[in-house]
Amino acid sequence: VTMSSFFKKNAVSKSNCPRCGLGSHCSAPRMKVAGKGGQRILVIGDSPSALDDDKGAFYRDSTGRRLKQELRHLGISLRDDCWYVPAVRCRPALNSKGEAGEVSTAHITNCRPYIQGIIKELRPEKILLLGETALHSYYDDRNKQCTSMFKMAGMQIWDSTYNTWVFPIWSTALIEKKKHDTLLFSEYKRCLKRAIHTEVQPFEKKWNPTYKLRNFKKAIKALTNCLRNDTLIAIDYETTGLDMYKAGHSTASFAWANDEGSWAVPVQHPYWNPKQQEEIYALVQKILKKRKIKKIVQGINFEYPWTKQQMKAEPRGFIWDTQLATHIIDNRTGVTGLKFQCFVRWGIEDYDKISGKYIKSNSKTGFNDMLKMPVDALLEYNALDSLYTYELYKEQQEQLVGTELDAYHFMHNGAIVMCEMSFNGIRIKESFYLKQKKLLEQERDDLIDLINTSDEATQYTRQRGGNFDYNSPKDLQIMLFKVLKLKSRKETKTGHSVDAEVLQKIDIELTRNIIAVRKLNKMIGTYVDGFLKHTHDGMMHPSFSLARARSFRSSSQSPNFQNVPKRDPKAKRITRSGMVPRDGRVLGEMDFSGAEISTSCYYHKDPTFIKYQTEGGGDMHNDACSHILLNEKDTKMPKPLRQCTKGVWTFSQFYGSYYVSCAKQGWEEYPLCVEKDGSPCQVKGMDIGDWMKQKYGSYKGFENHLKKFQSIFWDEWFTVYTEWKDKVCRDYERDGFVETFLGFKFKGYMDSKQCTNYPIQGTSFHLLVYTAVQFLKECRKQGLETLIVGQVHDSLILDIPLEEIDDVKRILSTIVGNLHEVFKWMDFPMGLDLEISKSYEQGGSFASMEPLEL
DNA sequence: ACGATCAGCGCG
DNA sequence: AAACGTGCTGATCGT
């Protein structure tokens, strides 16, 4: 009787895990913790492999050997110094392909009690969570924000429940599986090294007291004292909602924290009578307006405009945003929340347990139940928020030094300008959108009728039962690939794709109608409705955040101002015509020409590339086009083909695409290129489609041609660019981060494309930030009334009084023209384009912008 | 009823 | 292995 058959026989009868059943097929179910734990390190891995199962113990496979080897390099023996255990103790069932199947949430949940039991029993000093299964096992029942290794890997987290330090680390099995990914491996080694080499002490922190100001006299005294004596405080509001421009909101309470403690006071709250409310409100206003009281906030995008709009106070001395600082320290997504920071830094869980349900706003009304919360809970929560913000600030002062601190200050100035432009807002003609909405809905409903009464819909109902929902990708998949028996050409994670590209290729009346309905629904739902929802008193205030994007770009929300249609003429007209200048003004838009292309040059310094990008260096897109279609250098190509090359080749390649994708796209798109009159583009006297067939024979021939061209492009044309890319990746492998000219550091796991794309994207945007900051400064200095009302990565949208157009032109030309003097790493100037609309009185709008001579 | 996730689609 | 980044909507699934 072999060991494995012995276990198989006994697996079910011995099981203590009746809910799971995973053990029933295993040779070695319910593996127990192993190792001697000499250094009190507990390693929690994912789950046993088939080989582990066969051998009857965890980490007996190549993954285990790899881990042992890496630990040995760090002077640690897995057997002697650690305890180790899989988070799911039975080998996962095989999937249909015979590979190790997925571990489910249920498996993790069922095994969790054992894991928690051994932690209590062993009381480890450090816990290494090796892989996502371990991460979920450890955190899912306590904190829903600790979800992915992309976000958590490399952190050092104090756990106040088990009094231990936790180190999430990439799964060793994943490292084994992705052997070729040297960048991931380097991250893995760094995480492991940090976990092993960090000397730990039990975490202790003494927290300042919180004061809940429920007595009016005491409240006045405390506020007055703050106003007179405080020079640095963290502030926080609890409010009835997030949309500060919507009527009917109130500031339920206000809290501030300093080195001694934190205080919270009801403000526009029925706890006080109206007269008391007035007095408190006035004092809070004075604190907000006093420049000498420096303020720290968590999320300036909210606190700053709320101060202006709801507290009717000019925000002064807002010197730090802990959210922005968190983002600068760690640019990975999902780390900036105060709750999350409290959890990972100080092991604080659930301080919003009571307040949580009151804070959640009703999705229809936009109001929450803040005023219904017991005052005591409200003040405690508010005080804690400001207290934690203050403590976070203090830790960030220690953490952010050198170039990263410079980067913070640069972004802080930018953030205030973003707040100002959001506060300014853009004028909206609501009547226009209301009217468009009706027209679009009519147009859509007619199409829906056609779809619902089509033969296909009848056939669908006859075959499958139920009605065909044109809007459901699931129904559409059934319709196209089951009922109509068409062949799927593109897959998604869970099924067959039915996106516009697929529908366009199928090209029957049904798919044409669905494409049209989708476009209309997008216009109605995302844009028209979105604009109306966020417009108050004829003004819309999109928010612009600098603390979200991994690339250190901005993002925009409520509504997103950065994705309003521009390429499709009809969509452009409908969505942009209702954005208009104020009385006696025009809308203006300045944008950098080829912002990211130029910025890439500042980094890679490729002479061939720079020559293209500067005066008289030829036209890169045309030359690539000529190579791709003719295999000739420098032949002048028809404009639409050149334009097509940008998307098919140049930009794709710069973002890291490769010849096969480019070939597929080019083989489809080039033949569709037409001249202005609608006739097919001509090459050597032939239609482009016919020419390509003749020249390359088949798709495969075209692909081979692009394979060769890719080598020419990167190894002959842009050798220096290629060398730069290699160096950036090597440096990241060595250092664990990539740094920009302005001191921003990209951290966490990145693949080679991200390593080289982020600095270009980020820096390009930062030139715009600088331009916006300088422009606002200059406008104020010169007493101009021009307003910045929006921003789209490489462009600024302005609302300009007619008489200031020339001033704006001059100021912008100066600032942008001098960028390369300010930033010495710019080898040549950034290009500038300017467009303006007609005045409001002449019907000008964001839909019709005309170039302005510079 | 509500959160999470996916697919789809808009922009630079 | 094979295109970077973002936000919003509606459908779907699970609690």
Features:
DNA-binding, globular, 33 helices, Nucleotidyltransferase, domain 5, 6-stranded mixed beta sheet, Uracil-DNA Glycosylase, subunit E, 5 domains, 5-stranded mixed beta sheet, alpha+beta, disordered N terminus, Taq DNA Polymerase, Chain T, domain 4, about 850 residues, about 15% strand
Helices, strands, pairings?
Elements lengths: L2 H12 L26 E5 L4 H6 L6 H12 L4 H4 E5 L18 H18 L3 E5 L1 H8 L9 H4 L4 E3 L4 E6 L2 H6 L4 H16 L12 E3 L3 H14 L2 E8 L11 E7 L4 E5 L7 H16 L4 E4 L2 H10 L8 E4 H8 L8 H9 L9 H4 L15 H25 L2 H23 L1 E3 L1 H23 L2 H10 L8 H11 L16 H7 L2 H25 L1 E2 L2 E2 L2 E3 L9 E3 L11 H8 L2 E2 L4 E9 L1 H10 L2 H7 L6 H11 L8 H17 L3 H11 L12 E2 L2 E2 H9 L2 H19 L1 H17 L2 E2 L5 E2 L5 H30 L5 E5 L3 E7 L3 H18 L8 E9 L10 E2 L3
Helix pairs in contact: 5-6, 9-31, 10-11, 12-17, 13-16, 13-17, 17-32, 18-22, 21-22, 24-32, 26-27, 27-28, 28-30, 29-30, 32-33
This protein binds a DNA duplex (12 and 15 nucleotides) through helix 22, strand 16, helix 27, helix 28 and helix 32.
